[in-house]
Design the sequence.
């Protein structure tokens, strides 16, 4: 797996470290020469290419024609967009990911053919909103840009779900208790399994039924 | 301002110019003088001081990359969109928004760095590169004098 990363800052260090640890080959493109030197000192196992990432020659130098994925995470949305478009149109890189700094641009990116967008602002804000609403929810991961929610809840004595079997709970359609963590062990539950105080439930559901699911399990939405 | 006599008037009436730098403002002034409706967008309000006193169009302070700003300029009605900011990636993004999202008949972008020309071409954006035009003109002059 060969991956090109375009951008700078902590996110690039993090991604690089994480990809290298998985055994991937990483090439970083950055416009600033000094920053490039710094990057190659910090990540000796990566290739660092100095130049404008929107310039096809630079992408070529970075090995775009034989790369599997490109990730554009600069702070400039236009740059992220163009990098992904060129990578796909000229070099047929199968996977292109663009960071969208301004959530308003998500729609524009999609309309211009860049569909795999990562909007940290939207992800973070939706996670915070959910956490503010529900303290009992200790973990929430949106999957596929929020098309599916993975929620972890802790069963406490005042909750209506306590000592109920999953059958009796009558969770709405498009939701599922995928796992119960009890005394440090993971149980894949069936309808006959009861929920006990202190259980951690891993729930999968579509976002539209999420509040209904929470109401059924916790007895309230807010 | 000296007008070029061979410019013929046509039915391209409503023109949006993003970027009011030296080139953008000059175009805005000339087009306004020929009687076109011109809207100029720039995120620096000081840029508008480059417009003539006789400029009769509109000025919008804002980032042309944002569709809200383009909508405020009534982009849906535009016959021509000229993109002339100092950033190539922004020019390419705005030009594509005009062409592919709002289906504007004519979209023209100014190239800042000629190394990026190929990128514009791949994205099928019609361009003018002041750097290439100037360097070609100068080389031509030099070669002519040589003969």
Sequence:
């Amino acid at each position: 797996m060969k991956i090109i990363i375009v951008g700078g800052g902590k996110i690039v260090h993090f991604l690089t470290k994480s990809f290298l640890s998985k055994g991937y080959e990483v090439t970083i493109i950055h416009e600033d020469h000094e920053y490039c030197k710094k990057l190659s000192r910090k990540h000796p196992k990566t290739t660092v290419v100095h130049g404008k990432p929107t310039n096809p020659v630079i992408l070529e130098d970075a090995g775009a024609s034989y790369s599997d994925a490109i990730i554009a995470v600069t702070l400039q949305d236009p740059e992220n967009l163009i990098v992904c478009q060129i990578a796909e149109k000229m070099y047929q890189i199968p996977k292109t990911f663009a960071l969208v700094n301004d959530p308003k641009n998500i729609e524009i990116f999609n309309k211009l053919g860049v569909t795999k967008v990562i909007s940290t602002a939207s992800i973070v804000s939706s996670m915070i909103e959910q956490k503010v609403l529900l303290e009992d929810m200790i973990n929430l991961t949106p999957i596929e840009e929020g098309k599916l929610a993975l929620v972890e809840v802790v069963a406490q004595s005042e909750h209506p779900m306590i000592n109920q079997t999953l059958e009796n709970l009558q969770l709405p359609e498009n939701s599922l208790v995928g796992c119960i963590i009890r005394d440090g062990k993971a149980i894949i539950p069936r309808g006959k399994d009861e929920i006990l105080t202190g259980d951690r439930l891993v729930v999968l559901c579509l976002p539209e039924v999420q509040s209904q699911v929470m109401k059924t399990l916790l007895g309230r939405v807010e | 301002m000296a007008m070029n006599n061979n410019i013929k008037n046509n039915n391209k009436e409503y023109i949006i110019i993003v970027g009011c730098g030296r080139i953008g403002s000059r175009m805005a002034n000339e087009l306004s003088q020929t009687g076109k409706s011109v809207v100029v967008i720039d995120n620096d309000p000081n840029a508008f001081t480059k417009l003539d006193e006789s400029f009769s169009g509109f000025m919008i302070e804002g980032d042309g990359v944002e569709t809200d700003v383009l909508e405020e300029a009534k982009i849906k009605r535009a016959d021509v969109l000229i993109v002339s900011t100092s950033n190539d990636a922004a020019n390419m993004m705005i030009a594509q928004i005009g062409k592919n999202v709002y289906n504007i008949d004519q979209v023209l972008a100014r190239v800042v760095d000629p190394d990026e020309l190929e990128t514009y071409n791949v994205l099928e954006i019609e361009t003018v590169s002041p750097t290439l035009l100037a360097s070609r003109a100068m080389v031509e002059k030099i070669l002519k004098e040589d003969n």
User: Anything to note?
Assistant: The mean pLDDT of chain B is 91.
